[in-house]
Amino acid sequence: MQILTLVAPVFAARCSVVVADDGTCVVVDPGAGAGEQVRRAVAERDLHPRAVLVTHGHADHTWDAPALADAFGVPVLLHAGDAYRLDDPFGSLGVLDPRHDPTGPLAQALAAAGVDLGSWHAPAHVETFGTADGDRSPDTVLDLGGVRLTARHAPGHTEGSTLYVLGDDAPEPVVLSGDVLFAGSVGRTDLPGGDPAAMATTLRDVVGALPRAARVLPGHGPATDVATELATNPYLRAVR
């Protein structure tokens, strides 16, 4: 298994291409401007995409997902709790909505990347796991060709935020954490759908239960590992 890391120009969001030994792959969190990088990587390596996954429904992680999914003829997969966000990726951003704040940070980042705000279209094929009823969902195992991941519901940043865990039983699993966990920090909970109490439970019961040796690839910023975060991240220390 190989993980290619691409960085989208908007908010430097991490896009991961998880590649199996047989050349099948899945794309995780293709944010605005990541699409061309993904297409190039797939073509150069003769990869065979099976799905586009998103850790949560915010636009900086989903913007290029519909175009890639449609181009590859694969579904967009995400937790049911965030599926509604694909209908209007800006409408669920509250104060960050660039239509209401044309000089704000997201509007500026999109403009700098040359993103047309009117170019969004919902993906043709969406598949969900979990439920949208507000309850915490059990783990979902996703078998996508040669790529096998465990989706762990981790609400708090958004209702459907998800950790994707590769190699659950490996000595050093890899966790694609989206905006749940960063190196030294965690995702904000003040946007629509955010919930500080749910985030505290996620940090204690979901992140805290991950193997200490697990490597963490956050949605923004440098990679880290669970042991380091448990020992030094003030947000994790506060809920233990």
TrEMBL record:
<feature type="domain" description="Metallo-beta-lactamase">
    <location>
        <begin position="14"/>
        <end position="220"/>
    </location>
</feature>
<protein>
    <submittedName>
        <fullName>Glyoxylase-like metal-dependent hydrolase (Beta-lactamase superfamily II)</fullName>
    </submittedName>
</protein>
<dbReference type="InterPro" id="IPR051453">
    <property type="entry name" value="MBL_Glyoxalase_II"/>
</dbReference>
<dbReference type="Pfam" id="PF00753">
    <property type="entry name" value="Lactamase_B"/>
</dbReference>
<dbReference type="InterPro" id="IPR001279">
    <property type="entry name" value="Metallo-B-lactamas"/>
</dbReference>
<keyword id="KW-0378">Hydrolase</keyword>
<keyword id="KW-0862">Zinc</keyword>
<keyword id="KW-0479">Metal-binding</keyword>
<dbReference type="InterPro" id="IPR036866">
    <property type="entry name" value="RibonucZ/Hydroxyglut_hydro"/>
</dbReference>
